[in-house]
Specification:
about 210 residues, Immunoglobulin-like, mainly beta, 15 strands, 5-stranded mixed β-sheet, rod-shaped
Amino acid sequence: MKKQFVLPLAAMLIATPIWARQHHGGGSSISVSTTALSFNGSTGNVTTQPLTITAAGWNSVTIQGVSISNGVFTDSISTMPMTLSPGQSVTVKVSATPQSTAQTGTLTITSTANDPSVSLSETATTPPPTSHSASLTWSAPSTSTDPVDSYEVQRAASGSTQYSVIGTTAAASTAFTDSSVTAGQTYVYEVVSVDASGNVSKPSNTVTLTIP
């Protein structure tokens, strides 16, 4: 009669190869360093940020492609497909070109494992401030027994009789640019001549300008 031996449960577990238990349910996948990238388009320059792609699991993973839904965003990967060994990483440079309106998009990585995606966003560019100025010219006095030493340019707000000096020019210059104006405002200008002793002439005729 043959004897039957029952292998203890503990012995059965010990007898199971370690590598088999480790690989059970293993597989492969890729992960990304972030799920969202935000770019500051208000700087007016192309901005770039890194995105790291890492292979995880027990098998190599092949990245088949990287696609971006909005052409404002670009990536630096040029060679496809690309195979990553377990634990190996590759860093991709993602760039954004400034636009006049805020932009969004999605970067999707296609691989032999999973297909992670990264949301992309960029702020709108800040338009440069619009500068305004008013250019004035006048004629020197045709007849004067008192030589002109300089000119004073005076300005008042529309509807006001209170003039203030906003600039002076030498006697040889009969032009002035007022760069302190505000869009939408109306100003009244006049010019007076000043002699070497500081005596001031009567004002010239006035000119009214509305800044667009």
